[in-house]
## 1
Amino acid sequence: MPRRERARGVLLGLALGDALGAPFEGRSRVARGQVEAWRDARGLMRWTDDTHMALTLSRRLLVDPDLADPDALGAAFARAYTNEPWRGYGSGPPQVFALVEEGLGFEEAAGSLFGGSGSFGNGAAMRVAPVGLLSAASDPVVAARLAAIQARVTHTHADAVDGATVIAQVVAGLTVTDRVGGDEVQQVVRATTERLPVGAVRERLVEVMNVVASGGVPQEAAARCGTGVAAAASVPAAVAALLGGRDPLEVVTAAIGFGGDTDTIAAMAGAMAGAAWGLERVPAGLLDRLEARGELEELAVALSST
Ligand SMILES: [Mg+2]
């Protein structure tokens, strides 16, 4: 499958997971039938802050692929939020934007949250997938560096940075590969986990891989790590959905079924699954319902040739 097809799969997979998962956010479990009914419905599917921030990051990467100016990225996030504050943003980023208005730099503002530990939420991981589309990100060191730079604009806690690193490296690892298959996916997840610093995200990823390797279902793996907004819970949960699936729609539906932060878990899982399998098995009618589909595809193709 050509690289640009995988790239399209990443951004559309992200938006699909976000938009499909959004109505179920906060539920403890979601029945498969409910997700399927929403999948088979008609009308525009709007996405939330996850895709909104990923779009902003995508546009910044096209003008500043090294993220040499993180505050310009932060300012772009802040502008996007001011324009569309109704996209379901968490409480962290708006606090950062307000502190920057008062004169702090972005990283300084982000680092002051939660009593000085910075946010350990999944906000940096949910938006990071476009980083994995850059050619330079096929080097895991580059992917990790860019993931961390874009994270620290709003999320400075090590778990938030590690979570973003996982999504960026898995997307990058799967986008560049010529092979498709469960083995390849497992291999990329394992290599990514082994590169991570010791910490909560790595620990739970190891647990997820062990559950899946011993024949456990993704639901069981996700239940062990939790499905809340913490990066150390939701990023491994998204990986569990990826490891248990064979195509983006199946992966996203499973991710939503876990409950909890459904839109973000499904967005992260959808981006990784889109990199692995492209969109061949996603019904065209469903993609047509996605808000800003054309712009997402254009950005994906542009990023993958950068
Ligand atoms: Mg959201």
## 2
Amino acid sequence: MNIPINKPVFDDEEIMEVVDVLRRGILTNSLPEGGPKVKLFEREFAAFIGVKEAVAVSSGTAALCLSLMALGIKQGDEVLVPSLTFVATANSVLLLGGKPVFVDVDPKTYTMDPTDAERKMTSRTKAIIPVHLYGLMADMDSIISVAERRGIPVVEDAAQAHGSQLKGRKAGSLGVAGCFSFYPSKVMATGEGGMITTGDSDLAASLRSIRTHGQEVVGNELLTARLGANFRMPEVEAAVGLVQLRKLPKFLEVRRRNAKIMSEVLDGIEGLELPFEPEGYVHNWYLYTVKLCSQRIRDKLQEALNLRGIGATVYYRTPVHLMPLYRRLFNLEEGLLPVTEDLSRRLLSIPVHHGMSEEDVLMVAEAIKKTLAELA
Ligand SMILES: Cc1ncc(COP(=O)(O)O)c(C=O)c1O
């Protein structure tokens, strides 16, 4: 078996689009508005999410950094982030000179705990970045109400949440800005690439300027009006993104089917907690993440599955607050976030991606069942 945890699926459609861009020879556009494929990708992505604007950038990390920059996050500002996430969430704050303040997560949904967020607020807190972890949206109603009481913006880290929903609204449409990644492991992929969604046209204009050295068109001149850099998305990536976006509903359907089969086979196994969709939520099944009863069992299960060619993976074995850089910078130690630390020892993500057939899913599910029976 060779089933990686995630993998991009392309066919002739993406290949023909790439060839077409290369033949036409328009590879990028350094104006704030971007090239023709970028503009079209932005329009279609905004329509899919249900927001007014989308701004394509060079990565999910760039999406986070630019959003914080456009919102004026600066030296000394505190930004609330979870620690059970990819390091980019916190690094984007650090890159702007801000201080990430780590918030614990809910033990059932694994997303930011709004009560702990409220507790970690200070007079220096200037934004909150909830992460829609593994494709399940954070408790946005509670987080937004915490933020609104303080008049600060919520930036959604939706890097893993293409197509996820909460009460009929898509990830990326609830915060002031939503940040997506199109890294190859993601539900839709362009190679490197990212997108910022927003309902605020002024914010979108700032973001388009920041992504190309803070430039603005004034008369027939391009003038730098604010600090920016090159965070542009190339036309080839936008062309691939357009095809992937049109296929996204199908990808989501296959993932949902795969997750359902996985849950049917694994249901009722003692010591194994399965992922779920709380009332009102739609998961995109970016990752199917189970919770084991101990670190020993988790690690043994991962080892056994990896030996059979099943790419079960731990996200995240070292939470961000315990990364060497963060320990050193902020003097952080184990014990700061008990739920996050416990989960980092017991969670294991299982492949259910849209490149897998029903037979693949059944083989993986049976391998898990058999291994857990042997370990019991
Ligand atoms: C939660 C989260 N945030 C941010 C990112 C950063 O995205 P990128 O790798 O495209 O920079 C990723 C993905 O890698 C992610 O999973």
## 3
Amino acid sequence: MKEIYADHAATTYPRPAQVAEAMLGYLRDIGCSPGRGGYRRALDAARMVYDTRCLLADFFHVPQPEQIVFTPSVTYSLNLVTKGLLAAGDHVLISSMEHNAVIRPLTRLATERKIHVETLQCHSDGTLDPLQVQKALRSNTRLVILTHASNVTGTLLPVYEVGDILAHSDTLYCVDVAQTAGSDAVDFADLHCDYLAFTGHKGLLGPPGIGGLCLSQRAVDLTQPLIEGGTGSRSEDVHQPEFLPDKFESGTPNVPGIAGLAAGVRVLQQQGLPAIKEQKTKLTQAFLTGLAAIPTIIVYGTKEASTTTATISLNMDGVDNGDLSFMLEQTHGIMTRSGLHCAPLAHKTIGSFPTGTLRFSFGQQNTLADIEDILAGIREIVAER
Ligand SMILES: Cc1ncc(COP(=O)(O)O)c(C=O)c1O
């Protein structure tokens, strides 16, 4: 049976061959730790890590490569922002489409540090009016966190407009680009943000276990590291270095992950983001058009390919979405994700809590033939009921 992978919002698959080759290349040909020795292999590792920082700085339009720190995941990056910045009495604004990587650390901090978390209610298609952010700002609003796109409906949030509202204010601004990096324009400078949190294993085509955070100068000054330890620098000092990237990068890094991420980003640069976005939009549009003709299917989100990523959530009237996901794989080899997608507030927003939805998410590797096969599979299940 043909396999169709339609869970790119979870992780990218299959990865470009260059990603595995770069990881193997590091393990086989370099193999040593960066910044922890003066011999050739250690210098080669350090150069590769630095080159990847430069590559990402260019990719996200970050002024200095050191403003990018590597982390194990966007979850870690978001924990670094919230736990490293917030203190008692701070007011934080988030949208109702955020991932648990934002919601759960803030829930803990609300109890432990007495911060005030305010959730801005998005419309039932997941959209947010940027003026809602402006109206909710208070004198003690320390941080606004927004996802660039919902991982449930694909709905794009107005992160650039909010950036314009917050520019020159004392409120720090964090954008989670887990769902958009690698297909949509992600420009650190244009966003006027203080933190850009990204993950390597989705649209950036890299391996799991590597992500990062881009920080503005004031964010660097105001944020405490989540962990401290060896950096390979100033070993005589018992204090964590204050300079970048060492302030936030302790312990031997995931060097094979960094090598794989660099390879993924280079593939994206060859393909070109406009071409990737065009392909994903074409797939999304074809899927939405096909779904609109199936009466028992309820589609969530804006239902417009131009205002979403290539992620679509749906339910089939009278069928459990977990069963539907199972049936699609068993009978047609189609891989999807059902349930709540680590975003309970998003499901409350779109009206699918607590059962959730069935999520389809496409990558540039998918084809229009895949979309046709998925639609045929859905139609078959509908017809059998
Ligand atoms: C919007 C958003 N934020 C955060 C995450 C967490 O990503 P990771 O598991 O790579 O840390 C995800 C992943 O599903 C996501 O979609």
